[in-house]
Structures are given as C-alpha cells and as structure tokens.
Amino acid sequence: MFHCLAANAANISMARVIPLADARTALPLAAAAPRVAPSGLLADTRGRHLRDLRISVTDRCNFRCVYCMPKDVFGHDYPFLPHAELLTFEEITRLARIFKAHGIEKIRLTGGEPLLRKNLERLIAMLADIGGLDLTLTTNGAALTAKARELKAAGLNRITVSLDALDDGVFRAMNDVDFPVVRVLEGIDAAAEAGLAPVKINMVVKRGVNEQEILPMARRFKGSGHVLRFIEYMDVGHTNAWRMDDVVPSAEVIRSIGRELPLEAIGANYAGEVAERWRYVDGGGEIGVISSVTQAFCRDCTRARLATDGKLYTCLFAMTGYDLRALLRAGSSDAEISNYVAAIWLQRADRYSEIRSENTVALPKIEMSYIGG
Ligand code: SAM
User: Fold this and answer.
1) pLDDT in tens, 118-131
2) What pLDDT, on a 0 to 100 scale, did the predictor assign at position 250?
3) CA distances to 31, 195, 372 from 303, in Å
4) Which protein residues touch ligand 1 with a CB less than 6 Å away?
5) Nearest-5° angle of CA 340, CA 370, CA 210?
C-alpha cells in the first residue's frame, strides 16, 4: 500500500508535467488498521514522532513565482479546486483535534496563499480554541498589512513571510505578477507591530536568479529582530524544471555572509528544527539556513501535510495522499479517523531528500501549492 520511491525511480526517465488529478488518487481505508489509542507519540518505521501538521487552506495564489507556480502552467485555465472540494473550517478543526491527540504540537497554515482563503481568521480562532497548539502561518505578505492585527487577535502565534529579493526588479520578476517589494516590507512591519514576532522571512535562493540578493537581504534584516532564513531551491512538484545546478548550497550562503558579517553557529531550538541557526558575532541577531538538498533532514522529519482537499501526505515529495475528507464526509467516527491516521504514520518510511538523485527528480510529485509549502 505504501510506495517505494526508489523502486519507481528506475522506471521514470523524463521530466514531464503531471496534472494534479493524476496524483490525487486516494488509497482505500486500511481495513486492518491497528487500533492505536490517540494518546500521543506515534512513531513511524524510523522512530520519528508525529509533531507538526501543515495545512494547505487553498491551492490558489496571487503570485506566480517562477520556481513554484509558473504562469505557463498555472494560467487562467488552470483547474484549481472548486470550493466544495476544499475542507471546511469545521472539517479542518475536527482533524486538528484528532491530530493533537496523536501528539501534534504545532500547526502551520499555508497554501497556495493562505490569506486568500476567505475568513481565515475564523479558522484560526477555531484552532486556537483547541488549546495547546503553536499556530503559525506562511504567507507571501501581500495582504499582511491589512490582516496582521486580526490574525493575531484570532490567536495566531507567529508568522513566516516569503521574500526572495530586496531589489524591486528582481522581486517583481520572481513573483511574476509585478508585485513591489515595498508592500511586502510593509506587511512584515505590520506583523511585527501586531505582535506576530519574531517574524521569520524565507528567501528561496536560485542560482543565477537572486543569489546576488543574499547580502543585501542579510544587511537589511540584521538587527531588525526578524529571522531571515535562506532556503535551498528544491525539486518540489513538476512544473519548475529543477536542476541541481540551480541550487545554491547553504554552506555557500553562510560563507558569503560571514565574510562581511561574521557569524557563528548556534544550537537548535528544539529537536527536529529544519533551519540550522547562525548568529551575528556582534549581537545583530540570527539567521537560518534550510538545506533540504545538500543536508537532508529526513532523519528528524516530524511533519505531516494536509492538502487543500483533505488528503494527507507524509512527505513534501510524496506521490500518494490518503483521503481523510472521504472519511469525514462518509460519517466516520473520530476513533475511525484517528485509527487511520495512526496506521498511516506507523507505516511511514519516507526519506526522499536522502535518496534524491537524477532519477528521483523526475518522479511524479505533488505541486507545492496544493500540498502546502
Ligand atoms: N504563499 C505562501 C508563501 O508565499 O509563503 C505559502 C506557500 S509557499 C508554497 C511556501 C514557501 O515555499 C515559500 O517560502 C516559497 O518560497 C517556498 N517554495 C516554493 N517552491 C519552492 C521550491 N521549489 N524550493 C524551495 N522553496 C520553495
């Protein structure tokens, strides 16, 4: 029932665009799912616990970042999910309670662009009502100036804003909808003022596209209280024509910043933290690097992902999801859904980034906008 990436890799030799519908086939409910009490700490086949849940609340985005949702694929006629296929806020909240009982401590809302989902603050309030969850959200920042206060008031704890360049021309070309840098910077300020601090700022670095922006970004956010994080460009989805040559390794990022602004490594905040932390020697704050390509962190991966239509994925690079929405809408009890989730996690063996190769790059993976970045 569970796919072996390595086995499939040998059969696939050419990159191609896979329509999402192909990859959304849900597996039938495991008839013989073991009964696992929802009382915390599920461990998968590699001993990894289930700790974080990322929820994609929409597959739509108002940006067309060239490395994520390129215009030629995600054009006007792209078949985004109809509203009825999205999990409702009530369905998301019910699943969040079930996951919390299995040990989830943190929920990140993402997408697509999560701030495009109407009344998102209502969902945040519903999730906050569960209690004991660290609630975070990743956004492109376009709507943040208008929404930061209400997100905080609804119960959001922290926020991550994506920003790939300070240079307006570079940024507009990367988001491909001519969106200006200044509006994202205003959004970051609004988030900090609203108390969604420390604000994390994610910069995906792509060779030959925005690597010249690494230092300007570091200079700009040093001493700001925000935490800038550099992300290695990954082969998620099937539409970005990823090549290893496009990846700027984190070690190179650290070297080039450290030459001008001396850095020293610091320890992780918690086990399984994806960003490796560095701080400015002069006390100007910290930065992070997320090295999913050059230093795979599958060994510590505690994340599950709930896609926009309620399919559960146990890896960002997964090919198959498990249809929780079908269970919700078929009248399954909490205990049945809880058991199913447990069965999925207990059999989890994913370690895509550790086995990434020329062959795995061409595997039919799910688009990030749908599974949630
Ligand atoms: N729309 C929101 C945003 O822009 O942050 C949330 C969704 S977006 C898919 C989440 C994050 O994934 C962004 O920081 C984006 O830059 C990052 N991302 C998208 N494609 C990526 C890729 N191929 N490699 C690395 N990061 C990627």
Assistant:
1) 999 999 999 999 99
2) 97
3) 24, 26, 12
4) 61, 67-68, 110-111, 113, 138-140, 162, 202, 204, 231, 233-234, 236, 240, 368-369, 373
5) 135
359 band by pLDDT with thresholds 50, 70 and 90: low
Q: Which residues pair with 352 in a beta bridge?
A: none
Token pair 């919700």 in the structure block, residue: 328
Q: Where are the strands (E) in the chain, listed by range?
A: 52-56, 106-110, 134-139, 158-162, 200-205, 227-232, 263-266, 276-280, 286-290, 303-306, 311-313, 322-323
Residue of 251, 216, 218, 257 lying closest to 232 (CA atoms): 251
pTM for the full model? 0.90
- Per the structure block, which two tokens stand in for 203? 């910069």
Mutate to test the pocket of ligand 1, among 68, 80, 140 (most ligand atoms within 8 A of CB): 68
DSSP state of 261: S
The pLDDT > 90 percentage for the chain reads 74
Inter-residue contact 123 to 156 (CB < 8 Å): no
Ligand 1: residue of 117, 158, 160, 162 to mutate (most ligand atoms within 8 A of CB) is: 162
Among the ranges given (102-116, 276-290, 295-309), the one the predictor scored with the smallest mean pLDDT: 295-309
SS (H, E, C) 182-212: HHHHHHHHHHHHHCCCCCEEEEEEECCCCHH
Q: What is the pLDDT of residues 157-193, one digit of tens each?
A: 999 999 999 999 999 999 999 999 999 999 999 999 9
Contact 141, 162 (CB under 8 A): yes
DSSP sequence for 113-134: -GGGSTTHHHHHHHHHHH-S-E
Compute the distance from residue 31 Cα to the ligand 1 centre, in Å: 36
Phi, psi of 22 (to 5 degrees): -60, -35
